[in-house]
Specification:
34% of the residues lie in helices and 20% in strands. It has a seven-stranded mixed β-sheet, with helices on both faces. A hairpin with a 6-residue loop joins strand 6 and strand 7. The chain has one domain: 3-Layer(aba) Sandwich (Rossmann fold). The protein is built from six helices and seven strands; from the N terminus they run ααβαβαββαβαββ.
């Protein structure tokens, strides 16, 4: 994201954090955000035990707590642009590592076994094409992962779209996936109006 969108996102989440504190509402999921269901689907991308995970847009680092609750021994790293969320994550899940930064521009000195991102594509960007942003991010994610990438989206096939929300056409995401790798899975079997994408390195 460029500076305009970064500052918009940082303000949005910081304002919510001041209002709701440690809560799914701060992350924009509402009180019954079904975060655990999303985590369940995203972590089915592969065997995560004894693997390294990069959580892009990690928020509070709740994914770190989720994988631990499932008895998985993972090397967890979260990256997010919102300082309040990163600091809360460090306090709640101190066994993880946290990076305050933008995945889009951050330089990593290693690959991760899996990269997971939930909700990062759900806002309309102000100063660039959402489609181009998704394309660029997925391309970098697959380059930075050894075994796979799992991300989720909101579908255009809904009854209502919030003015600031970005809903994707699954056909468009399929096109992006085909241009990123030749091995992938699209899942829309777990929740209405949302779906997930698994990307794997090319055959």
């Amino acid at each position: 994201m460029n500076d305009i969108d970064i500052e918009t996102v940082k303000k949005r989440y910081s304002d919510r954090y001041k209002q709701f504190g440690y809560s799914p509402e701060t992350l924009g999921w509402g009180k019954n955000g079904r975060q655990e269901l999303r985590f369940s689907i995203l972590t089915q991308i592969g065997d995560l035990n004894e693997k390294s995970i990069l959580d892009v847009g990690c928020g509070f680092g709740d994914l770190c707590g989720y994988v631990m609750s499932k008895g998985l021994s993972c090397e967890y790293t979260g990256i997010d642009i919102v300082p309040d969320l990163i600091e809360e994550g460090k306090q709640r899940f101190p066994h993880g590592e946290y990076i305050l930064g933008d995945f889009d521009t951050h330089s990593f000195d290693k690959q991760f076994d899996y990269i997971i991102a939930s909700g990062i594509f759900n806002f309309k960007l102000l100063s660039e094409s959402n489609a181009e942003y998704i394309r660029r991010m997925l391309r970098k994610m697959i380059q930075c992962s050894k075994h796979g990438v799992a991300v989720d989206f909101m579908s255009i096939y809904v009854d209502y779209q919030h003015p600031i929300a970005f809903h994707t056409n699954p056909a468009s995401v399929l096109d992006i996936a085909l241009k990123t790798t030749n091995k992938f899975v699209i899942r829309q079997d777990y929740m209405p109006y949302e779906y997930s994408l698994y990307l794997y390195p090319r055959w």
